[in-house]
Design a protein that fits this description.
The chain is of the alpha+beta class. The chain has 6 helices and 29 strands.
Amino acid sequence: MQQLRPLADPPPVAPRRLTRAAPRRGWALLTLLLLLLLGAAACRKAAPATETAAAATYYTCSMHPQIHQDSPGSCPICHMDLIAVKAAPIPAATATQYTCPMHPQVLSATPGSCPICHMDLVPKSAAPAGAGAGELTLTAQQVQLANIRTQTIGPAPASPTAPAAPSVLTGTVVADARRTTTVSSRVAGRVEKLFVRQTGQVLRQGTPLFSVYSEQLQMLQQQYVLALAQSRAAGGTYQQFAEATAQKLRLLGVTAAQLRRLAARGTAPPLVTYYSPGTGTVQTLRVVQGQYVAEGSPLLTLTDLGTVWVEAQLYPADATRLPVGRPVAVQVAGEAQPRRGKVIFLSPELSGTSQITLARIELANPDGRLQPGSQANVLLAPAAPTAPGAPAGLVVPPAAVLHEGAASYVWAQTGERQFRRVRVRTGAATAAAVPILAGLEPGARVVTTGAYLLQSEWTLRQGSAETMNGVPL
């Protein structure tokens, strides 16, 4: 039997030596873990740059987009059904937005169509950082294409030898109603001969106008001839009858010369000719040769253009500067020098809803060059001329001022290609300048050319943050 040998003891294991590298490796792992935890917390707190705001749905009228409601219904103005509008969410960091040219309150982050009028949306540049309400920044190409021109404004010159430019009232040359005559038919009959065939023809007093055949005139002429014959034979009652018949013919437009020829001839002619009652120009002609006319029908109108009127429109505040009887200067279109006239009438009432009144100026027209319908401007002296040594106000060209209802605005340049819409208070304007009473300071640069284009661009860019037609959106 084999004898088992005892197992030998395992060799002793040498103890592991601790080095300085182990603590360093532990601190590095701990520091890395701490940095990872802090970075994750910071990412959770930071908002993404492209975070979008939820757009609320509202209901509006397709004809009156200023109507906004939170629930369906009908428009309080035209009673049309309201439609739902939900603006697409717009990224906060997006440089380009899309809007509707007809409804700038509609904004979208992507191209599409307007939910109101279904027009294609157009790009709208985002407002630059720091731009406030009424401010506009253009590119160099936009400034060049719009032909933007500016001018530094300052006090108006106050010189006693150079008076301020006169105010201008727009007017029209019209015919003098006191010199207008209407020729109408005295009897019913047929116009056999018409001697006037066109308007604008100048007629002298006594010029034949037309010849008419009328049964009424024929009967009266025969009665007059018979009464004259009987009066020569018997006299008495027939003489009175002849005078009564002659008076009827006079009332129907027969002249004394025609009555004398009728008495000398002894027979009634078939036609009776009517003559011009005065000198003038044919303004209207309402009859043609061969036409049958009724008694009282207007046939033509004669106007003596030796004197004409200029009817000018003015505001009631300017009526005190144009009293009746005051001589004024009138500049007629096509003439180099103004003419002198006199105010003969001021209307005591306003014309309709325009809140303007009417002034009538009389002008002499001996050469007949002033024709009704021509444009004319009435030149008024300045309301308050600047006294020597008195401080003068700021003035801008008329093209620089934009009017919106009762408010007036100008565009002022605030930087390179940067403009701001400024509300101003203006004084009495003239043909050359508009005084600025408040809103601007001396030395400001004002846009004198291209203000309307700036206004259009600003209207397109303002979007739903502004108002439309003065009504908050």
